[in-house]
Amino acid sequence: MFKLGMNNIKNFCPRAVDLFSYDNNVSSFIKYLIRNNKVTGSFRVTNLSSVESQVMLWKRQLPDVTPYYAVKCNPDPVILNVLAKFGINFDCATQGEIHLVTEKCGVTSDRIIYANPAKMMNHLVYAINQGVKLTVFDSKDELLKLSKIPNQKFELLLRIATDDKNSVCRFSNKFGANPRDAENLLDCAKSLGLPVVGVSFHVGSGCGDPKTYTKSLANVADIFEIAPRIGMPPMKIVNIGGGFPGNSIGYGGKNRPTFQEIANIIRIEIREFHKKFPNNADIKFIAEPGRFFAENSTIIVTKVYARKGENLQSVYVDDGVYGSFNNVIYDHATPHPSKIIFNENEDIKMINSNVFGPTCDGLDQICKADNTLLPYCKEDDWLEWQNMGAYTHTASFVFNGYTHYPDKFYCFGSN
Hints:
- This protein is an alpha/beta fold.
- It has 2 domains: about 5-45 and about 295-410, Lyase, Ornithine Decarboxylase, Chain A, domain 1 (Beta Barrel); about 75-290, Alanine racemase (TIM Barrel, Alpha-Beta Barrel).
- The chain has helices at about 5-10, 25-35, 50-60, 75-85, 95-105, 120-130, 140-145, 180-190, 210-230, 260-275, 290-295, 325-330; strands spanning about 15-20, 45, 65-70, 90, 110-115, 135, 155-160, 195-200, 235-240, 285, 300-310, 310-315, 335-340, 350-355, 365, 375, 380-385, 405-410.
- Strands 1, 2, 11, 12, 13, 14, 15, 16, 17 and 18 form a 10-stranded mixed β-sheet that branches. It has an 8-stranded parallel barrel with strand order 3-4-5-6-7-8-9-10, surrounded by 4 helices.
- The longest helix is centred in the middle third of the chain and has 18 residues, at about 210-230.
- The chain is elongated, with a radius of gyration of 23 Å.
């Protein structure tokens, strides 16, 4: 089996540091950067061995499901290259993402799904010119749009809505056809000469009930039975979407199912699905994991530049919700900081703490005192934030004239 290793990493990321020199510990590397004045403000450290570990975990838990990494989660070219080396495919939703993985990472178009049910025409034309073949739709309007493009050779997946009421981030309010409308949509595709080769769904991020996959796959099976009945070729692809948690806690809180629990349900349902179609050996299962691969790869470190209070303190750091911590607003995240301790004799009595970002907007609050404990902080202290590799800096923007972008560091070794 392919192993990443430092030699392979150096080919596309010469700056990557071997953690062997830092006691195989990311925290030791972070302290080295601070102590030796390698950084002056907030920065992030991505441990590429974490990405490798998640790839291995996926292959153990879901060996029959081909993953297409959701580029929007974290489009860092180094992470993309690591995933590409392991043979992971890519879920792209825009022209820019297709360009990134094909031109910057050398990924061939047959490893891409253009997984946006509502596409801009110029993005579609770009995808066609790049040779992308697989895409999705959820309406007659999208089918009509596709039919207007001459000489296109897309294979289509019908995206259906799911019962995602128990998920943290819901998507069926925006995308997905009602399964009851599937036959009409397949009839429309057939009349337009557009090949529908499978069905796609997404149960939402932070899935609260793994049995949602059971119901969704039952709907997919019904649609698979419709296709030959109306004179279409048998379908061959089932896309079970993304939203898989990227760490042991589970996205959305401790009471959410873990990846292993979700994967167990999916394995069972895949076996049952194949039993329903014993004469169709070509059925292939794919998925669109994003945070699963990227979330726990990256630690963000912020610098305290101001503080106030005694028994209840307010701490001000140089990154916030308009930067890397936009996930607090847009991704239902609850980041938890820890203070980096350099002096073993330091008083680490924990007190309730508000943590604010650097802008003058009251909305720019990362943590609230009622659920955040930190030691007493002072100016020029540093806070460390784990599991910050998914939907963080990729969605940041400039506001209030604050233009600091965290420095990036890469390492490889034990977590």
